[in-house]
Write a structure and sequence with these properties.
Length: about 70
């Protein structure tokens, strides 16, 4: 990340999508629509949104990273 503002912007963008995807699923639950193509699409959207958020918050460590754990 270039700056804390970049981090905050991207974090906010990802959280908005995750929240929208989750709310979409909850709306389907409220309308008792928990199967079928609409549910499958909502489930996939929420799954992808969560994976994107998780990947952003937990990037893989690289060999040149200052966060690389050292062996005990």
């Amino acid at each position: 990340m270039a700056s804390i503002d970049d981090f905050r912007f991207e974090s906010h963008r990802l959280l908005l999508e995750l929240d929208a995807a989750t709310m979409g699923m909850m709306a389907l639950v409220s309308s008792r629509c928990v199967s079928g193509p609409e549910w499958d699409a909502a489930n996939e959207r929420q799954h992808v949104a969560y994976k994107c958020w998780d990947a952003f918050m937990n990037p893989p460590l690289t060999a040149d990273s200052k966060n690389t754990p050292t062996p005990d």
